[in-house]
Write a structure and sequence with these properties.
Elements (H helix, E strand, L loop, with lengths): L1 H4 L4 E6 L4 H14 L3 E6 H7 L7 E5 L6 H13 L3 E7 L11 E5 L7 H22 L10
Parallel strand pairs: 1-2, 1-3, 3-4, 4-5
Helix pairs in contact: 2-5, 3-4
């Protein structure tokens, strides 16, 4: 996935409620590690800002039933603008998963620990994106400047 998205100029992340925190964390890690322009916003705001353009990757973090319907709308809108959507969803979720380009399924965990668990794939993606961008000469953090 990081190889496929290494040349992206912009990465968007979104989530609702407790899943907004992993979206924020993911955007921060991409800016820190890759470095790349990355922005997070609450799930509902995706439908007001219309920021995603054709080809722009969107990480949709949809780990609960409360935001499922709006997350599905978001996946459909992403497809409609010809964006590239990666959803991070619970292991038993299928509706969003079949709508997006890629679905990463995570185990069902308690609501108290879900934001932490859902941050892990975003951190790993940030690291791998940095490695891939560096291999392409697109920049990566360096020690000692």
């Amino acid at each position: 996935m990081a190889k496929r998205l290494a040349r992206a100029d912009l990465v968007l992340t979104t989530g609702a409620g407790p899943f907004y925190a992993p979206a924020e964390f993911g955007a921060a890690k991409l800016k820190e590690l890759a470095p790349i322009h990355a922005y997070s916003f609450p799930l509902e705001e995706y439908h007001h800002y219309r920021t995603q353009k054709a080809g722009d990757p969107l990480f949709l973090i949809a780990g609960d039933k409360a935001s499922h319907a709006r997350a599905l709308d978001t996946a459909l809108m992403s497809r409609g603008v010809e964006g590239y959507c990666v959803a991070i969803v619970p292991e038993d979720e299928t509706e969003i998963a079949k709508t997006v380009d890629v679905a990463w399924h995570l185990p069902n965990v308690s609501a108290a620990t879900a934001p932490i668990v859902y941050s892990v794939p975003m951190h790993l993606f940030g690291y791998h994106a940095a490695v891939e961008r560096d291999a392409l000469g697109l920049g990566a953090p360096r020690l000692g400047g």
